[in-house]
Design goal:
By secondary structure, the chain is mainly α. It has a single domain, classed as Arp2/3 complex 21 kDa subunit ARPC3. It contains seven helices and two strands; from the N terminus they run αββαααααα. The protein has helices spanning about 40-55, 75-85, 85-95, 105-130, 130-160, 165-170, 175-205; strands spanning about 60, 70. It has a two-stranded antiparallel sheet. It is globular, with a radius of gyration of 17 Å.
């Protein structure tokens, strides 16, 4: 039996809105001051395409729990959100997983729920506080929200299609769902924190 569980996923140019030391500044303005320009649409399309491609790269994280598989598409949504704001995080989170809608609609619904739950709050917090500490705060807050949504979503949605009762799903929380999701969000947070600054610098250079 295979179960597709819930696991997965400031507007640029605004500048740093608080006084920070160069050491703490984590972002420079990216893009076109919030305009829906051709370039911005093209960048969103690139993020969506990358998220789609990565969503098909799946592998287990927890030994003995092969049916819980990780894919790195959520990192793309986080980076897009940090670069272009919560709207970008939402768009990439939703459109990046659309192909799976025709393969596994229930799994796609849960993937959307968690990806949006993590990337949109993280991007919103980072937009208000564009510093390293703001990035960490946003990532942690997004991970906590996504973790709660993952557990609740499994309890509500998984029994609808996986021929399992709520109590059977609940029995998997501590041995499987919780450690898997913690590992997943830890990977997404660490990788996003490490790659966002180089990516933002690349986006800045391409916009000149």
């Amino acid at each position: 039996m295979s179960i597709r569980t819930i696991v997965d996923g400031s507007e640029p140019g605004g500048g740093i809105t608080e006084r920070t030391s160069p050491k703490d500044a984590h972002s420079t303005g990216v893009g076109d001051s919030g305009r829906w320009s051709t370039r911005r649409i093209a960048m969103y399309a690139c993020f969506v395409a990358l998220s789609m491609a990565l969503s098909f790269i799946e592998f287990p994280l927890i030994p003995g729990v092969q049916w819980l598989k990780y894919d790195p598409s959520g990192i793309v949504a986080l980076v897009a959100g940090f670069a272009y704001g919560p709207a970008a995080a939402l768009i990439v989170s939703i459109l990046g997983f659309v192909p799976h809608l025709f393969i596994n609609p229930w799994g796609t619904l849960m993937a959307w729920l968690v990806a949006v739950g993590m990337s949109v709050p993280a991007a919103a917090i980072y937009r208000r506080r564009r510093t390293r500490s703001g990035a960490v705060l946003g990532l942690v807050a997004g991970a906590v929200i996504a973790l709660v949504l993952a557990i609740v979503g499994n309890l509500v949605i998984t029994p609808l299609y996986a021929h399992m009762t709520v109590s059977q799903v609940a029995a998997l929380i501590v041995p499987a769902l919780l450690p898997f999701n913690l590992a997943k969000y830890a990977i997404n947070c660490v990788v996003t924190f490490l790659v966002y600054k180089p990516v933002s610098e690349l986006l800045n250079r391409s916009s000149r």
